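A quick aside before the break. I want you to see a complete sequence-to-structure record at least once, exactly as it would be stored in a machine-readable document. Don't worry about memorizing anything.
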Amino acid sequence: MKRLQRVRPASAHSPRLRDAAAVLPLLGLFAWMPPVIGLFAGSGRVLGIPLIVAWLFGVWLALIVLAMWFSRRLAAGADDPGPEDATPPERGDAADLPDR
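That is the input. The structure line, written in tokens, reads:
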């Protein structure tokens, strides 16, 4: 007899998703370290803004957006019970069925 289980999205409780969310602050730290920032310390400009300022605020904005995306994906997976929480439907006898 097959047991019916609720199917959940593969990425909802994926360890890879949680690991990526944990690595995000480290990625931001790396992007703001002096050797990387030094690449943008030149005299270039983006829409009149110095390149280094555009880099700092661009990385900051990207980190905020990615953190929001990760938090929503992980929160959506927390609401969905996993297969271990799903209960199979009960089979009743014919006497348990309501009369029609």
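Two observations worth writing down. Residues 51-79 form the longest helix (29 residues). The radius of gyration is 25 Å. We'll return to this after the break.
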